[in-house]
Amino acid sequence: MKKTAELPQPKLDDKYPYLSEWIMSGWVEIGQSDEYRSMAKAFDEGGQVFEGGNKRKIKSLEDALNSLELGIKKWCDENGIDLLDES
Asked: I need a labelling partner for 86 at 20 to 30 A (CA). Which of 14, 18, 21, 29 fits?
């Protein structure tokens, strides 16, 4: 059987720029727990900054990563943090 050429996939760093920068100084948790409704959380040294990804809405790892990306971006915008500042 002849293999078909696969299109190059975007790097995760390019697809999730806020999440990629976040994990350099903070951390995230992804997964199901009976104790919590959310499946995606982001933390910094001060504690939890984002909790999202309701179990009913998260159907894949990509859903969880998207939730974290949007939640971290929103938190940064609300707190005046330019996480992607390259200067």
From this structure: 29
Q: Residue 45 is part of which domain span? A: 12-78
End-to-end CA distance of the chain: 50
How many domains does the structure of the chain reveal? 1
Structure tokens at 36: 């919590």
The DSSP code sequence of 11-61 is PHHHH-HHHHHHTTTSEEEES--SS-SEEEEEEETTEEEEEEEETTT--SH
Phi, psi dihedral angles at 19 (to 5 degrees): -60, -40
**Which one-letter DSSP state was computed for residue 85?**
-
pLDDT per position as a tens digit, 32-57: 877 777 889 999 999 999 998 777 78
CA angle 61, 63, 50 (to 5 degrees): 100
